Amino acid sequence: MPADERFAVRRESARASVPRPLTAAPAPAGVPLPPGLALRGRLATGARRPETPRGSGRSGSGRGGSGSRTPHSGRGGGPRRAYERARRAWDRPLTAYYVILGSSLLITVLGLVMVYSASMIKALDISKPATYFFGKQFLAAVIGGGLMLIAARMPVKLHRALAYPMLMVTVFLMVLVQVPGIGMSVNGNQNWLYLGGPFQLQPSEFGKLALILWGADLLARKQDKRLLTQWKHMLVPLVPVAFMLLGLIMLGGDMGTAIILTAILFGLLWLAGAPTRLFAGALGFAAVLAFLLIRTSPNRMSRLACMGVSEPDPEGGCWQAAHGIYALASGGWFGSGLGASVEKWGQLPEPHTDFIFAITGEELGLAGTLSVLALFAALGYAGIRVAGRTEDPFVRYAAGGVTTWITAQAVINIGAVLGLLPIAGVPLPLFSYGGSALLPTMFAVGLMIAFAREDPAAKAALAMRKPGVRWKTMRRRVKKRSSGER
Predict the structure, then answer these.
(1) What pTM was estimated for this model as a whole?
(2) With contact defined as beta carbons under 8 Å apart, do 433 and 115 qualify?
(3) What is the chain's pLDDT, residue by residue, as a tens digit (486 residues)?
(4) Distance in angstroms (rounded) separating the CA atoms of residues 68 and 408
């Protein structure tokens, strides 16, 4: 082929490869073009769309238009959309982590404020500075915060390794309480160890944490070996060890702590899948034993008789229960203000320990007490979520045991203040004065935080929050563009 003919062929092929503007093909009569094709055709041919008068309606838009789109109705969609958004937010992987951390810290901080407000008159009455009890509680909160941080950062294997040493040390300390000259008696209960100066230790409070860790590890090992289907493996040695702890506690006369320990035992058995007949028998035995212990003690009988009273008797009985009701009743909706309580001026015994909830109701009103209840409810629900979503049996038993402990103790304390339950002498968790109760409780909260962090979805979410990982992820997602692309 000659050179001029080859050049002509190449020129024609180059022209054919150049994209040409799209033009709208003439449509058959009576058949409208699709909107997108018609628009491209008008743009390619330079035709302009005729202007629409303001008064005329447009298809699919405008107030008076007769298009296919209908205006959105906000009545039914608003609450439903808000509910769906809240449900999606609650189902996020880190929700339980933030709820446990936030609610526990808020309860502790509010408890410090109320301990200072409720104890200043008591401190001045014993010739101490007004900040005497608050200083001790603040020191315990700082130490407990360190324990909570350590527990939150510890792996689950290390928590399981601490189960047996913690149980043995706790049993040893509880035995020392009963040795004359070493143990101390406070309010008729022999359950304290003197540490020197103003510091005392109540080993039975650490017995709750020891039973949870040891029982969770024991049940997890038996579940791995598929032994929990037999009732003897479910009960032995969990129940005998729990009864040993209960016996050491009852030797000191502390029935309130024994009730909490019994609730923890029942919670562990329920999580292990104990049959209903076993629960019925255990509850019946516990009820008979509690009746005998209450019947044989005049002090416990008097506490039982104070349920639901609205005024003390002429001989001075039920004084604490009645004045607790007075404090709650005088608070109103928003209370008398911080520091303005009347009942803490010698009328209400133990205003900063067992009956601090009554002072909270008097100074912060119904709004303050409901806020405290909401925080405990959030903490309990988050603990149930951690226990229900894990596949590790140890995490499930330990998280369920801690949730049972904090929830049952809060219910017993608040129920006694409200006059619905007998006065058991147990503090409000994370709220009442008492370092011996605050330290193991904050460690247990750190335990639940560690369990919430161990969830695979939570691990991935926390890893995404690290700056290095987030930057690398963004670099992978962003595609490189050419210099001329906008």
Answers:
(1) 0.79
(2) yes
(3) 555 555 555 556 555 555 554 444 454 554 454 444 444 444 444 444 444 444 444 444 444 444 444 444 444 467 888 888 878 877 888 899 999 999 999 999 999 999 999 999 999 999 999 999 999 999 999 999 999 999 999 999 999 999 999 999 999 999 999 888 888 887 777 888 887 777 788 999 999 999 999 999 999 999 999 998 888 888 889 999 999 999 999 988 888 999 999 999 999 999 998 888 888 888 888 888 888 888 888 888 888 888 888 888 777 778 889 999 999 999 999 999 999 999 999 888 889 999 999 999 999 999 999 999 999 999 999 999 999 989 999 999 999 999 999 999 999 999 999 999 999 889 999 999 999 999 999 999 999 999 999 887 787 887 787 655 444 444 444 444 444 443
(4) 58
Q: Which positions ≥6 away from 159 have C-beta within 8 Å?
A: 151, 213, 394, 398, 447, 450
CB of 143 within 8 A of CB of 418? no
Structure tokens at 397: 């038993």
- Decide: helix, strand or coil at residue 193: strand
The terminus-to-terminus CA distance of the chain in angstroms comes to 46
Compute the CA torsion angle 86, 111, 429, 412 (nearest 10 deg): -90
d(CA 414, CA 406): 12
* Two tokens, residue 260: 């909490």
